[in-house]
Amino acid sequence: MNKKIYMTCRYILFGALVLGSVVVLSACDDSGSIDKEPGQALVSVDGEEITILQLNDELSRARIQADQLESAKKQILESMIDRQLLMAEAKRNKLDRAPNVMQAIERAKSQIIAQAHLQSVFGEIEQPSKSEISMFYQDHPEIFAQRKQYNFTILRFPANELNDELESTIDMAKSLDDVVKWLDKNNIPHVRDKIARSSAQIPPEMNKRLQGKNKGAMFLVSEKDDSLLVSVDAIEENPVAADKAEQRIGMHLLNKKQREAAQAELARLRSSAEIDYFLAAAGADDQADSQSVDPLTAETDMNSLNDNTSLDNMLQNESIERGITGLK
Predict the structure, then answer these.
(1) What is the largest CA-CA distance in the chain?
(2) Angle in degrees, CA 129, 130, 131, rounded to 5
(3) DSSP H helices in 123-241
(4) pLDDT digits (tens, 9 = 90+) for 201-219
(5) CB under 8 Å to 300, separation ≥6 — which residues?
(6) Burial zone of 266 (CB within 10 Å; 0-12 exposed, 13-18 middle, 19+ buried)
């Protein structure tokens, strides 16, 4: 196995060290015994066995590519041995009884159990139907059937420099270069950059603004303390067929159903629970937070449609460039 895969396996295992230790340590009783997972033992570390089932669990969490699975097994097993040695040494030094460690164990344990309940709720959710997927495809042509690829040049300058004279210059400009010359002449600082975005990554307001625009079109966008003059350098048709999008849409809709189910379950539990806030101000803040926080700690990972962004992220994207807060 190459060095990159080796380091990935090691980092994944060590990155999960605390959580792995939580699972093992939380199974300890007062005598210090550990509930062993059944399965054929692969190795014994000072009498503590590591089984095939445990290795398979680590492999599934590491998400190793199928063609790299066999070569990854040995390295992951060695990392599990390292983790067992570190955990055993920590226990010999009674670090597992340190207040901060015990608190972390309890916190992780409660999160795991709470997530287990949510998973049971998710088990009742029906998979998105063909009609739901088809309707979603039709309702979002900018992401699929009418998807376009845009190349932009962005000219950024301070928003407080945008006066009537500059606006008039922009209106009469035949190209971005004309505006650059005016900015240089008036000693106004500016930065020029190029970006590429698909219509799937652009917010609805921007997509509407781009409708009917041709190569060379320019328009202003406001971004906090800056103004951005956006020039359309190129537009290419880049549609995604329905059959290619079906799986991704299904996953997105399932994620949405899971979020809604989790929020509904939390609302149900809160309505039937007796919750007493002992600090009125803190209670109000907590209540506000509880309404805005997504109860899911992680969403299903999925590849995007010919992009490096998931479909969920595409739908939540609110700018053609990170940081844009509004249109002008």
Answers:
(1) 83
(2) 90
(3) 130-139, 164-172, 176-185, 204-210
(4) 888 888 888 888 889 899 8
(5) 251, 254, 255
(6) middle
